[in-house]
Amino acid sequence: MDLSHVVQLVIQGILSGGVYGLIAVGLSLIFGVMGIINFAHGQMMVMGMYVSYWIFVLLGIDPYLSLAAVAAAIFVLGYFIQASVVNRILDYPEAMQVLPLVAVGLVLENTALLLWGPDHRSPQTALSLETTWIGPIMIDDSRLIAFALAILITVAIFVFLKKTDTGKRIRAASDNRMGALLVGINVNRINNAAFGLGAAATGAAGALLLPLMPVSPNMGHDFTLTAFIVVILGGMGNLMGALVGGLILGVAESTSTLFLPATLKQVVSFSILIVIMLFRPQGLFGGKK
Q1: pLDDT tens across 78-93, in order?
Q2: What are phi and psi of 27, to 5 degrees?
Q3: Residue 215 pairs with which residues in a beta bridge?
Q4: d(CA 92, CA 219)
Q5: Count of other CB atoms within 10 angstroms of residue 51
């Protein structure tokens, strides 16, 4: 086995895992604040990819430069979904929370199908074919930039939640909803902001992924499942755990191609999920509860 090939796969897995982590951070944030699982998560990411794609096609702005605009657009989408749907089902039994969010995902998927059609779309950006060589190791510049931005955004979200007044209100609503209400926090508005922030992180991840893979309306389901695996691996509601879980999953999927066909990488993902659920269901960084 060629050592340089193994190192190449590990690096590729780390770079992909950073974006996985950003996708999962949005899901983990939403669950941590409201205790609800967003089954429309992958479809929201796909909408982010399409917004980024059309900004590139119509205005010629690279996806990395339109990142903030894409995140803002998906923030508005998430805020609207929370205010119109999720706030109304927070007190429902868990089984009844699933169907409205699955329905939202299907609405988003079919909206994308209606607007953009079923064909795969893949823009050729300025960095699409650019690579950097370090000895025998090749690094895809697009993946490296996506990884760096994903880490930066994740850290920015973490600092926002820790240091800002709005972030502290989000954490207070997450810890004790009734207590937050009693001290005068508008919990519904905070929930809207938290869901919007989680959606914005997902939309940003979509913009980062656009130069790396073609987009189509029906790819959201796979990314929803990937986000679930990463969040469970890192620990539900743990943002740093989601990032580390993404890195672990990315490396596991990448290095598995040494032994398995690339088309079977999801076998590795779900095998990790099964092991975690059996032996450490709270996740690697979750508490005892």
Answers
A1: 999 999 999 888 888 8
A2: -65, -40
A3: 121
A4: 29
A5: 23
